[in-house]
Amino acid sequence: MVTTKTNSKWQFKTLGYLIFAITLLEILNLFTGRIINQFSIMPRDLSSLGFIFTSPFLHADLNHFLSNIFTLAVFSYLAMQFGKSEYIKTSIGIIVITGLLVWIFGRTAYHLGASGIVYGYFGYLVLAGWLSGKVKLLLISVAVAFFYGTMVWGVLPSRPFVSWESHLFGFIAGLVLAWYLKPKS
């Protein structure tokens, strides 16, 4: 049996590594004139298909990074409450499904940023708690829907330089994974 102390340890350690890695990548990208952004998704370009694994960790500028990092940290921590295995499956699933859908259906533009993952966690967190039957997880769903519910408008085209496709497909991926993985009650 895993204790709460052990749970907290892997959660904070994993979250720390994640935030550190994305921040380090942002610093490197900043000081190299954003050269690393060449590893972003360009839909239907075979040479960028593998970039579905790198594009979520790249950002167009510092403001873009800052707009994603806090919510990513909060949602990532909340997703960890569903268990280590579910967190790993959900995270990988969101990255792969969102990236593939953006690569197939996205408009011709470079797509990058953690917002696809953020929206994936958003969709997952809103639905998975309801499906779990556990009070703690249901409360997470309610809190996320209440405090972040207006995020749903981000799945609609609003600004030309925002990948609403990543938002939409991330949200869909999160919902699908919540349904498919159905946390155990």
Could you explain the architecture of this structure?
This protein has helices at 4-31, 62-80, 84-105, 115-132, 135-148, 164-181. The model has no long low-confidence stretch (mean pLDDT 94). The radius of gyration is 16 Å and the shape is globular. It is mainly alpha-helical and 185 residues long. The protein contains six helices and no strands.
Question: Could you give a short description of this structure?
Answer:
The chain is an all-alpha fold and 185 residues long. It has six helices and no strands. It has one domain: Rhomboid-like (Rhomboid-like fold, Up-down Bundle).
How many strands, what sense, and barrel or not for the largest sheet?
none
Mean of residue pLDDT values: 94
Percent of residues in helices comes to 55-70%
Q: Give the structural class.
A: mainly alpha
In quaternary terms, these chains amount to single chain
How many DSSP helices? 6
Work out the strand percent: under 5%
The coarse overall form would be globular
What is the count of distinct domains? 1
> What's the SSE pattern?
HHHHHH
- CATH topology title: Rhomboid-like fold
How widely separated are the two ends? Answer: 17 Å
Low-confidence residue ranges = none
